[in-house]
Amino acid sequence: MRSALLATLAASALVLTACGSEGGDTADPSTSPPRSAATSASDTAEPETATEPSSSPDLPDSPATARPPDSDPGTVITTGGSEFGPMLFDENDQAIYMWEREPTSKPTCYGDCADAWPPVLTDGEPVAAGKVKPRLLGTTKRRGGQIQVTYGGHPLYYYVDEGPGEVLCHNVATHGGLWWVVQPDGDPAP
């Protein structure tokens, strides 16, 4: 009994340690560029703009989104199973998160926050796969001009220390707020 309790406590500490520290910079772009290749461009002050998810009722919730023939393919957002139920992943099986401190499409995770939680970036229109609802996919402009993928109007992120298929940081508080995996309906997993 005592061994099981110690193992549970050790596993809980490992998950909390794996998801970063409580501190962090959520708005100061003057820190050094994030470590991740996904966020290698500098984040200098520039107005953010967003493309809202399509609200057109005639768009199907299909496994793929049609793109104009001349557009670059964007980041593929798909779904997969997890202990939290179906959730969003990218095409490389990286778990995708949203942050409770961002109730709109305007990103506020910069500096140390973006070091730990690199934004899901795209060079073209994001592409829906699996059970992703194309009408919920959108984009927003980050400081420095990078385009970040949104879902249901919320900016999307990865956790830097997770490998493909790993989901270690659901409902974990870092950088002043909770991070949640995202369900196909756009809501955080319970």
TrEMBL record:
Claim: Calcium is one of the keywords in the record: no
Pfam families: Lipoprotein_15
Biased composition (Low complexity): 26-63
Domain of life of the source: Bacteria
Coiled coil: none
GO biological process: alkane catabolic process
Signal sequence extent: 1-20
Keyword check for Signal: yes
Keywords from the UniProt entry: Lipoprotein, Signal
InterPro entries, A to Z: Lipoprotein_repeat (IPR005297)
Region feature (Disordered): 20-87
Protein name in the entry: Putative lipoprotein with Yx(FWY)xxD motif
Lineage: Bacteria, Bacillati, Actinomycetota, Actinomycetes, Propionibacteriales
